[in-house]
Amino acid sequence: MYGYEWTDEYGIFRLTVNAKLQKEIRPVFKEELDFFKMYEHWDYPDTDAPLLWAEGVRRYVLNGECVAEAKGGGFYTRPTVVCNTDKRLQLQPVDINRLYEVNKNLMKSLEQKAISFIREQHDKYKLERYSFVCAFSGGKDSIVLLDLCAKALAPNEFCVIFSDTGMELSDTYTAVKRAKEHWPELHFYTAKCHLKATESWDEFGPPGRRMRWCCAVHKSVPTILKLREITGKYNAKAVVFDGVRAEESARRAKYDEVSEGAKNISQVNVSAIHKWNTAELYCYILHEGILLNDAYRLGLFRVGCMVCPLSSDWWDGIANDHYRTEMQPLLSRVERYARNTKVETEVVKYIEDGGWKARMGGRGLPNGGNRINEQIQNNTIEFTISGSTQNWLECAPILGTITEFDGSTGTQKISGTNFVFRVSKKADELYVSYKPFSKMDRFVISHLRGIANKVAYCKGCKACMVQCPTGAFTIQPNGKIFVRESLCTHCSNCLTFSEKSCMLAKSLSTTGGNSMDMKGMNPYQHFGFRQPWLEHYMSDGTECFSQGVLGNRQYEALKVWLREANLLVVNKDKTMEQTALFKKLEQFGPYNPFTWAIIWANLAYNSVISHWYCLNTEPGETYEKADLVTMIGENYSKSTRENAITALAETLRLSPIGSALNQGIPIELSKNTYSYYRDGWTTPDAVALLYSLYLYAEHTGRYAFTLTELINVHDTPDAPGVSPADIYGLDNKKLRECVQGLALTFPEYIRVSFINDLDNIVLENKHTSLDILDLAEV
Q: In angstroms, rounded to a whole number, what is the distance separating the alpha carbons of residues 351 and 331?
C-alpha cells in the first residue's frame, strides 16, 4: 500500500505515501550470506535477526546503497554474488523493534483495516450461510493472513485448510507444524489430491507457464472437496480468505479484494492483504514474532512447489542446492521430458534456460498426442476416438436426456432439439456420430467436442467435478465419470470450466488450441510497427521511403504494417498512395493513443499475427515471447514463429498499443528481455469502439447483430468479423457497459436493446467506419 524510504538508522526504512521506492523487498539472514560465503567479504554476527535487505530479490541493499548483486542461477548452477565495494562491511542485526516503532502508526492502521475487513466479510456472508476458510500455504502471505484471521474471528468461526500439493518443500511442512503449535485453538485441516504428485506429473506431463494444471488438481480442487467433507454438503458455499497480493504480479493486481465465483461457482475469495506490499508484510511478521518459513532464511523470496514453471533461475539455483534430494523425483521428470524433445547435448541448457516452462500440449510426452479425429459430412458430426478412457453414454447425459437407445443408435434431447446418435467400438477405436448437424448451434457443437475430450482423455482428476452446482457430476473411486441424471440441470459448468473441457486433454493434445491459418504471419522481417516510424511517414508521406532514414529492410517492414493498418496502398506499378483513413488520422498525429487504437483495430483484421494475438491471448494474463511462440503451434517453423512474435512484441513495446492501450504492457525481466501483460483497454475511447463495431458490420455485411454474437465470435477463428472485445481486451461486462454508453452518446449511429432476453445492436448503415472518425475530437 505504501512505498518506503531509507532512514539514516541501520537497516531501517520508513513507510510513506510519497516514497520513490516501490520495489519488493525482503530481509536477508545469516543463512543466505553463509550460502554465498559472504563471510569472506563481510563481517556479521551469528543472529536470527535480519542483517540487511534485498530489493528486487537480487540487489543487497544497506541503507539505500546497493552493496552487492547476485547473478545467474539455475537448477544446476548456484547464483553468484558480486560485491559493489572493496570495503569489508561490518553488518549488524536490524533492530526489529525500532523498525516497527518508526512505522507504528501506519502498520497499526493497516492491521486494523484488515481485521475489520475480515470481520465485515464474515458477518455479511454468515447471513447467507457460508462457511469460512483461511487458506494456508506455509508462506509469508498466508502466515500474516492467518494471524489477522485469528485476531478478527473466534476459533469456531472459521477453519484453516493447508493445501498439501505433495510438492512442498520440507521446510513448508515444518512451518505448518509450527503454526498448529502456535495456534492450538484453531481448527486445522489438510487438503490433498487423491493422486500423488509423481502420478499426476506422469499423466499430465510437467506443468508449464501456460499449462498450470497443477494448481487446480493439487490445490484448489482438494480444498473444495475437503470443505465439502468438513461441512457434509456437496454444495457447500465458502468464503475463502486468501493471501493474494497485488504486488506479486500484474495479473493479481487486477483481482478484486472480494471475488465471487472467480475460482469456483460456490466460492467467494476474500483477499484481506491484497494491497499490502512486502515491506509492510515483513515489518508485521518480524514485529509480531510469528513463525517464518525457514526457506526465506535461505534466500527464497516465495514459498511454493519445489519445481514450478513460474519459478526464477534464482529460486531454482538456491532450492535445488538446499533441497536436492526431495526435488529429484519431479526434476527427473523435467529431465525426461527434455530428453524427449531435445538432443542430449541441449538438455541441460534447455532446462537451465527454462525452455521446459513454456510447454504447451503433449509433444514430447509418452502419452501425448491427439486422440480425436472429427469430421463433418452428410449433415453429421462424427468423432473417432483412439484409446478412450471413459464411457460415452456415461458422459453424454451432461448435455441432455437420452430418450432412446437400442445398443448402438439412440436419440438425445439437447437444448430442446432431438438429435440422433450412434455409438460403436472396433478394437481400440470408438466411433460416435450426431445428426442433424444443421440444427446445432455453436454451443451444442462445442459441448459435443467437450464430451469427446472427456471420453478420450479423462483420468478422474476431479477438476470438473467441483464445478457442478448440484452434485450430479461425480468421479467414482475407479476414476470413471458418473452423472446423476435426476440432479443434472445441464448447466455445462463441467464443460466450460476449462479449454477443451478437460484439463488432461488440454495438457496432452498437440494442436495447442490454435486452428487458425497462420500463413503469412511474418512479412515484417522481425521488425515491429514503431511509433517513430509512423511519425516519419506522417511527416514525409510516401517520400519517406526514399530518404534513407531507415534501412531497406525496415522500410519494407513499414510498408507492410502501413498496408495492413489501411494507411497505405501500393499499386501494381509499385507507386504508393496514402489512404482516406490515413488522411483522417493524420490530424490526430502519431503520438495520440486514439490513432493507434484505430490502427490496432485494422491490424486485428489484416495482420495475421495481430489477429492471432487478439483471439488467443486473454486480458489479465502475462506472456513471455517463448509462450507466444509455443502457442502458435508447430505447423510452422520455429524461426518463422519467432520472427513473427518478435515483430509483434516490438510493436507492443515501441508503440502506444502496448502500454497506452494496455494490449501488451512490457515488463522488463532482464536486460532486453520482456514479458507482456495484456491488461485490456481500461478506458476505451468511445469513438474507437464505435469504429470497431462499424468495421465488424462492414466485414460481416450485417449492421444488426447481438451482443451474444460479439462475445461468441471469439470461438470461430475463421469468422469474417472480430469482436471489439477481442480487439481491445474487454471482458463481457465491460463490453456491454461500453455498448450501452455508445447508444446514449451516439443515438444517430447505434441503437441497443438489452431488455429481458434481447441483446440487439443496430448500427445505422448510412454511415461507414470512416465517417465515425469525424466524431472524434482533435
A: 10
Residue type (1 letter), 257? E
Phi, psi (5° rounding) for residue 330? -85, -40
Q: Which residue has the cell 469460512?
A: 132
CA Rg value for the chain: 28
* CA angle centred on 335, ends 70 and 303, rounded to 5°: 45
Helices 324-341 and 313-322, axial angle in degrees (round to 10): 130
Complete DSSP assignment for 581-625: HHHHHTTT-TT-HHHHHHHHHHHHHH-HHHHHHHHH--TTEEEEH
| β-pair type (80-83, 131-136) | unpaired
Q: Model's pTM, two decimal places?
A: 0.79
Q: Is 183 helix (H, G, I), strand (E, B) or coil?
A: coil
Distance between CA atoms of residues 365 and 206, nearest Å? 9
Question: What local confidence, expressed as pLDDT, does residue 670 receive?
Answer: 73
CB-CB contact of 239 with 268 (8 Å): yes
Count how many Cα atoms sit within 13 Å of the Cα of residue 94 in the half-sphere of its side chain.
Answer: 28
CATH code of the region 686-775: 1.10.10.10
Quote the pLDDT of residue 310.
87
Among all chains, which residue has been given the C-alpha cell 492450538? 184
Q: At 712, is the pLDDT very low, low, confident or very high (cuts 50, 70, 90)?
A: confident
Q: Are strands 473-475 and 52-55 parallel, antiparallel or unpaired?
A: unpaired
Stretch(es) of the chain classified as CATH 1.10.10.10: 686-775
Measured CA to CA, the distance from residue 619 to residue 678 in angstroms comes to: 5
For position 515, what pLDDT does the model report? 58
| Separation of alpha carbons 161 and 133, rounded Å | 7
77, β-bridge pairs:
74
Q: What is the pLDDT of residues 259-304, one digit of tens each?
A: 886 666 678 999 999 999 999 999 999 999 888 899 999 999 989 8
Distances (CA, A) of 385 to 203, 395, 434, 512: 18, 14, 14, 18
User: Tell me: domain 102-292, CATH 1.10.10.10, correct?
Assistant: no
Cβ neighbours, 10 Å, residue 252: 14
In DSSP notation, 360-402 reads -SSTT-TT-S--EEEEEETTEEEEEEES--S-HHHHGGGTEEE
What's the rounded mean pLDDT across residues 655-659?
A: 96
> What is the bridge-based pairing of β-strands 568-570 and 576-578?
antiparallel
* DSSP notation for 235-282: T--EEEEE---GGG-HHHHTS-SEEESSSSTTEEEEETTTT--HHHHH
Distance in angstroms (rounded) separating the CA atoms of residues 338 and 349 = 10
Q: How far apart are CA 487 and CA 646, in angstroms?
A: 51
Nearest to 52 by CA among 100, 9, 91, 103: 91
